[in-house]
Amino acid sequence: MNGPREEIARLRAELGDLGVTGVHEVGDDGILSVWIGLVIRFRDGFYRWQEGPVKRRHLGTDPGGCAIRVARRYAELQADVPSWWEDLARILRGDAAEDYP
Question: 20 with 71: CB under 8 angstroms?
Fold first, then answer.
């Protein structure tokens, strides 16, 4: 198994293959931001992803399976934007964020 940055890069590639674009690495610790409030990090052999207070983990040897789970949740969020999104977007990005998640 590789380090956190390499594993996050593998996951990012898998997400791209599933059509999840606009994914950004945050900082130098191998943290991936998929959507505002939906972030993934790799630690202790697991992909650990979090959406607000909800935390999940997926075995680090299966980036494809993790990407499928994250892509599914991303699609759900896109289809039914949570009520908290607008407030969080304004706080994190300012009014210029408008409708862009």
Answer: yes
